[in-house]
Amino acid sequence: MDGKNILFVCAANVNRSITAQFWFSIIKPENQYDSAGSCRAACRIHGGEFVSQVQIDEADRIVCMDQRNKTELINQFGSSIQDKIEIAGIQDHYSFMQLDLIWELIDKVKL
Description:
Elements: E1 5-10, H1 16-27, E2 32-37, H2 40-46, H3 53-58, E3 61-64, H4 67-77, E4 85-87, H5 99-108
Parallel strand pairs: 1-2, 1-3, 3-4
């Protein structure tokens, strides 16, 4: 596959990042997508997948939904990953596959 490996990250991996993974895998299937949460406690509480070193290493791009997610990743994995991180600027008030969330993803994430 010639596409990129893109990792979407939100706090708990139950709404924003997993919606992005699902949505973009349908509309841009030339890339590979994964998603994870940046907050271990939120993932544990809500049943999301906490980001792993393997996911970080395999990602060509890491799209964090907000600044807090980026900060948590850098605290966890070090500043060497900073160059592949971008911030979408999508706040944490959406449900999984909510139409307004999909519109924000279309508007703010350029693949």
